[in-house]
Write a structure and sequence with these properties.
Structural class: alpha+beta
Order of helices and strands: HHHHHHHHEEEHHHEHH
Low-confidence stretches: none
Strand content: 5-15%
Number of strands: 4
Mean pLDDT: 82
Distance between the termini: 154 Å
Largest sheet: 4 strands, antiparallel
Number of helices: 13
Helix content: 55-70%
Length: 331
Amino acid sequence: MELTQIMPIIIIGIIIIVIAVLFTFIPVMLWISALAAGVKVGIFTLVGMRLRRVVPSRVINPLIKAYKAGLNVQTNQLESHYLAGGNVDRVVNALIAAHRANIQLSFERCAAIDLAGRDVLEAVQMSVNPKVIETPFISGIAIDGIEVKAKARITVRANIDRLVGGAGEETVIARVGEGIVSTIGSSETHAKVLENPDSISHNVLNRGLDAGTAFEILSIDMADIDIGKNIGAILQTDQAEADKNVAQAKAEERRAMAVALEQEMVANVQEMRAKVVEAEADVPRALAEALRSGNLGVMDYMNYKNIDADTDMRDSIGKLSKDDSDENDEQ
């Protein structure tokens, strides 16, 4: 084939390739959809989004949605939020929900809440439809020592103004638990807590526990109240056991001191007996010295021996009489 015959085919092929590349790089269908919805978006704006690595559908579709909902949102705002890593579609949905619920919420605050990591759409829905948070069983001890376990249901509403930097659900639960423990602890008896469980709700609710949190507490209701252990009796029993152990230790100390004193007395008795034996050993020497010196005669010595023998006999008779009386008592 000649070149003149091939040239039209080549031109048609080039045109087809150019059109295919054009439709691939430039979202013409998205541009047509925007124009059909009444949103004025230039074709070069879409090309610029491609060059800035922005997915045009992630921006244009939420823009169409916002325009149809009557919101005044600019393309640059949505594009900048997308580039910052935010969820453009969720932000627009939150703005539409807030607009329908007549809640004042600007795009800047909504974007800030989204970039802070919170679900802004859920927050708006929670502002319209409050959320119920249920606490676990919280134990408190009344003044009479009885343990009271209470479970509360906290009805909260999202506070849009405090979503950025405000504390979450865990802080609310912790503060309510602290208020419940304090209220139960200030009650004189556990019966008063059981009679008026709403007193816990009123006392806790009046403390302003939602300060600094991302929520506004609407009500606190007691879901369940149970009686636990008699902690006062357990503590008294433990104290009595401790006192008994201390008393036993002191008694054992006194007994050990008495035993030591007894042994000391036994040693003193043995010492005295040794002194007596030593003194008795000096008697024969004294008698011999008296006989040699003439201070003691033979008859005097014989009288001494007779008295000593008579004393030994009396002691023997006394010991025999004592043994007989002990045997009779045993019988």
